[in-house]
Write a structure and sequence with these properties.
This protein is an alpha/beta fold. The protein is built from 14 helices and 11 strands. Strand 6 (132-133) and strand 7 form a beta hairpin. The longest helix is centred in the C-terminal third of the chain and has 19 residues, at 278-296.
């Protein structure tokens, strides 16, 4: 973890309060062997936090083995976890160790554990409770000295109620839950991540340093980022690859990102329970839009009119009607 404005906790770039709290929890829990459940939307960095827990622990010199339970077919997942013996099934031409055996002394990170079948959940519970397992097709019990870290984007409590997830495993996993905030709730991290990815991809793609205009950054700051850090990373990579003039401008951004700004503004408008005066609200919104456009263009009316996509004469009339004046 570096001092200064940017905290890099095993390549996690953040200065937001929610992430500082996560770093604090990670440091407290890393040396216990207690099971940890990381919950968060896709793309929030659950894998990075799992790795940070391992690297802060006294198991750091031993293997860190990860497996995405949602990316492997049900038939292969058991073999991936526990290994198999020769002849256990068609294609099992030799003994193969599973993740629990390969991680001996270290940590196993099971991502998207909410996608695991009930049958496999029983076997994972056995590893957690008895520290042992049997390979597929084998009858030899293998001891497991591993720290288990799990993650999911699902609400496992709801999955338990629906009968999709075992209640006993749920309580065994939720000893120390860590909840990652979506990127839209970590606004101060967005510019840090943008500049980090710009540097990273500028170097990787040998493009020279690509910068970003203030206007493009404003739009990126206003977008809700449903795909979180992963979506932001992919966007910056694409923009760097396509960039030809050394600076990313607002017109370079995809339409989806630009229109996200408009959607966000609309979502922020609320209708209170006691009702609202429609005409007054529309007038106030129009006035706020005009002031924002004037401020963005340094009070140059031609440019503000362009931004608002109206005629300059229409803008001048509205400025007079709303009695808008530049504050000195």
């Amino acid at each position: 973890m570096k001092s200064g404005h940017t905290h890099i906790f095993d390549s996690i770039i953040s200065e937001s309060e929610p992430m500082k709290e996560i770093f604090s929890i990670v440091k407290k829990v890393s040396n216990s062997d207690t099971t940890i459940m990381i919950n968060g939307e896709t793309g929030t960095g659950k894998g990075l936090i799992a790795k940070a827990i391992h690297q802060c622990s006294n198991r750091k010199n031993k293997p860190f083995i990860q497996l995405n339970c949602g990316a492997i077919s049900e038939g292969l997942l058991e073999s991936e976890l526990f290994g198999h013996v020769k002849g256990a099934f068609t294609g099992a031409i030799s003994n193969k160790p599973g993740k629990f055996e390969l991680a001996e002394g270290g940590s196993v990170f099971l991502d998207e554990i909410g996608d695991m079948s009930m049958d496999l959940q029983v076997k994972v519970l056995k590893v957690l409770e008895e520290n042992e397992f049997e390979p597929v097709g084998g009858n030899k019990t293998i001891k497991a000295d591993v720290r288990v870290i799990t993650a999911t984007h699902r609400d496992l409590e709801k999955e338990v109620q629906k009968g999709n997830f075992r209640e006993d495993l749920f309580y065994r996993l939720y000893v120390i839950p860590i909840v990652l905030s979506p990127l839209k709730e970590r606004g101060s991290d967005i510019p840090l991540l943008v500049y980090h990815f710009l540097r990273k991809f500028s170097e990787e793609k040998k493009k020279g340093i690509v910068t970003i205009s203030d206007e493009a950054m404003d739009i990126i700051m206003d977008y809700p980022w449903p795909g979180n850090v992963r979506e932001l990373k992919n966007l910056i990579e694409r923009l760097v690859v396509l960039n030809e003039n050394g600076e990313i401008l607002h017109q370079d951004l995809p339409e989806k990102i630009k229109s996200g700004k408009d959607r966000k503004t609309l979502l922020e408008i609320d209708v209170p329970g006691e009702g609202i005066n429609f005409n007054t609200a529309v007038t106030e919104y129009e006035k706020a839009l005009i002031i924002k456009a004037l401020e963005k263009t340094n009070w140059i009316k031609n440019k503000a009119a362009e931004l608002l996509q109206i005629k300059r004469t229409t803008l001048v009339e509205k400025i007079k009607r709303h009695k808008i004046k530049k504050e000195m």
